[in-house]
C-alpha cells in the first residue's frame, strides 16, 4: 500500500515543501493540505510543518492552533492517526493542548541555527520506531522560541511515563527544561519536536558526517517510522 501523509500549509509556513519532499523520499505519498479547510483528504498521517505561522503573532503557533483543519487533526489524533509537529508545528500542538507544556523564547534571546545532536529516549512512537533506544542522531535545528517549559509535576510525569521522545545531547541550544527536544502523547501517535528532520533526509543536503560533508540523513527515520506504523495497522 502507498501511505499518504498530509502536510498542512498555514500562512507563514516555510518548511511545508521540505516536509512533502521528505515524505516522498521515505516512500510515501505527500498530500498538500490547507489550514482553512475541514478536509484531511483521506490521509493516513499528518505533519504540521515549521515556519512562522501568522507571523508568530500572539504566541508562536497560537493562532494556527485555532485554524479550521485543526479540528480534524485533533479528531484524527484521538483515533490514533500519527501526527508530527515540527518546530512551529510543535508549538501548535502545545497551543492546541494536544501535548503538554509550552515553548518560549530561547534563554539566550537569539535565534539559533545549528546541526544538533539528539538522543532518542523513546523509540516506540509512530515517528521514532526506526531508531533504537539511546541512539544519538544529528538533526538540523533553527528556532527563536524553542525553550520547552512545563510544571515540575508535568516534567516528572513526562519522565516517569517515558513521554520524552528526544533529548538534546552535547549542548542545550535554547534552555529547554531537562534538555527536552521532543515529546509524545501517551498513545505514542502524536509527537512534537523542535529540530527539523525534514532537512536531514537526502545525501548532499543534510548535516556533515565523518563520511562526507552534508551527508547526514538521520531525519529519514522519522518518516519511514510513520509509514511503517500505518502499514502495521493496515496489515
Question: What do these coordinates show?
Answer:
The longest helix has 15 residues, at 220-234. Helix content is 23%, strand content 24%. It contains five helices and eleven strands, in the order E-H-E-E-H-E-H-E-E-E-E-H-E-E-E-H. The strands form two sheets. Strands 2-1-3-4-11-10-9-6-7 form a nine-stranded mixed β-sheet, with helices on both faces. A two-stranded antiparallel ribbon has the order 5-8. The mean pLDDT is 97. The chain is of the alpha/beta class. The protein has one domain (4-234): 3-Layer(aba) Sandwich (Rossmann fold), CATH 3.40.50.880.
From the structure above, extract its key features.
235 residues, Rossmann fold, 11 strands
Layout of helices and strands:
Elements: E1 4-9, H1 16-26, E2 29-34, E3 45-48, H2 69-78, E4 83-86, H3 88-95, E5 102-104, E6 112-120, E7 136-143, E8 147-149, H4 152-160, E9 164-168, E10 180-184, E11 190-193, H5 220-234
Parallel strand pairs: 1-2, 1-3, 3-4, 4-11
Antiparallel strand pairs: 5-8, 6-7, 6-9, 9-10, 10-11
Helix pairs in contact: 1-5
The end-to-end span amounts to 10 Å
How many individual domains?
1
- What is the N-to-C order of secondary-structure elements (H for helix, E for strand)? EHEEHEHEEEEHEEEH
The description of the largest β-sheet is: 9 strands, mixed
In total, the number of strands is: 11
At CATH's second level, what is the architecture?
3-Layer(aba) Sandwich
Give me the CATH fold name: Rossmann fold
| Mean of all residue-level pLDDT scores | 97
Q: Are there runs of 5+ residues with pLDDT below 50, and where?
A: none
In CATH's first tier, which class applies? Answer: Alpha Beta
Structural class: alpha/beta
Share of helical residues? 10-25%
| Fourth CATH level, the homologous superfamily | Class I glutamine amidotransferase (GATase) domain
Percentage of residues in strands: 15-25%
Sheet with most strands: strand arrangement: 2-1-3-4-11-10-9-6-7
CA-based shape = globular
- Number of DSSP helical runs: 5
Q: How large is the radius of gyration?
A: 16 Å
